Amino acid sequence: MEYFHLSLKSHTLEDLLPIFNESTKIKLSEELFDRIKNCRDYLDNKMQNHKEPIYGITTGFGSLCNVTVSVDELSKLQRNLVVSHACGVGAEVPQIIVRLMMFLKIKSLSYGYSGVRTETVQRLVDMFNNGVYPVVYEQGSLGASGDLAPLANMSLPLLGLGDVNFNGKKYAAAEVNDKFGWKPLTLASKEGLALLNGTQFMLAYSVWNLFRAKKLSSLADKIAAISLDAFDGRVEPFTPGVHAIRPHKGQIDTAAAMRELLNGSELIKREKAHVQDPYSFRCVPQVHGATKDALDYIERAFVTELNSATDNPTILPDEDMIVSAGNFHGQPLAIPLDVLSIALAELGSISERRTYQLISGKRGLPSFLVAKPGLNSGFMIPQYAQASVVSQNKQLATPACVDTIDSSQGQEDHVSMGANAATKCCRVVENVEKILAIELMNAAQALEFRRPQKSSPALEEFVSRYRKIVPFISEDEVMYTHIHNSINFIREQYYI
User: Fold this and answer.
1) Shared domain check, 476 and 371
2) In terms of CB atoms within 10 Å, which of 28, 55, 198, 371 comes out highest?
3) 390 within 8 A of 174, measured Cβ to Cβ
4) Which of 150, 178, 198 is the last residue of a domain?
């Protein structure tokens, strides 16, 4: 059993890798428990003497912020908040995302600015450590007052309500709570709001998307190198001096990666009849590199959010302040998420163009990469499928963050739509897997027509492993199974 020890230490993206392993348990440091308790004690003491309304603690929510709630109804106020806001719709969120949500909510609450009780945080820890995952739905968050609907669904089991996934099956939360002897919590003042305010839904998707995006970026370089060699492309566009005079880091790094991947290739060294390659080959450093630069910016934003408290109001015990502000607003995530969708869509777009060149009957390759074109259609329609997915990514890359909609009777008059940005970005990631898988099918097929000459040892080893999954196609056969196997091969290269 491995423990992930939560403390005041800031975490990098890579630090979270153990969280993806379901055997990993969470343990909070004594310092964090002390911070949680001190903040709660401060709030309780403040409530005894504070006469002015405090948003969400002694008032209603949203446009009901001017409605004062009596002291004897503060607990009911918080319960009502959770049950009324559990309005998630759409598909169920994958369990790995829910697990991340729970971890990120625990981490955010543990900073001691939220006013929750230690027992509330501990219940979330107990659920996480025992593999009890609330059923959460994809749609329903505007990404501004926090991820209200999905976080409400996540919080229902604390009250003995809602559904959970446990040991691969769905149960009523009350049933699993009874199994562990967990009694429904009676929420204290501020606790419901602390649970529901925050960006943990979109941040969980952000982290998951970025992990996969970084791996796909590296794979895109490798597959592009195979395509280049199979197309009888030139290595000169990756010359260091070319990129030194336009020194974007991602561009320089991509050119270096291409040179390393092609090192030792017999094909790249042979005399070329053509003086230059199409953009989809020649401009790999510029296009793939721009995606790498975007990923660097995106990671900085996500890591900052990962190490933040994002609910409202913010309780600052050391400053003797309770401030109603806007740390729940998802714009710092929504913009990077939209950039991530765009950056990944471009990886897919240029990949499809390389595929198109490979099947075009150029540079000694047969039309559609099959020995007897005409009798055989070969790789004609895989490119159709690839183009379809590329086109969908262009639609999905339309930014969500530039949209807003009035809510809560005008009190919440600007929203980020970060949750929509997060879920559609996940679809873009999955689509790029498919696109690269189809390019790899074509590149590996084309490479066989260059035999007996070989590519580099690194690329030949990669193709050799691929050939154990997807065979060379000598004449027409059912293709979708090979495409699906190719997609699975891509996923196996990097899935956490």
Assistant:
1) yes
2) 198
3) no
4) 198
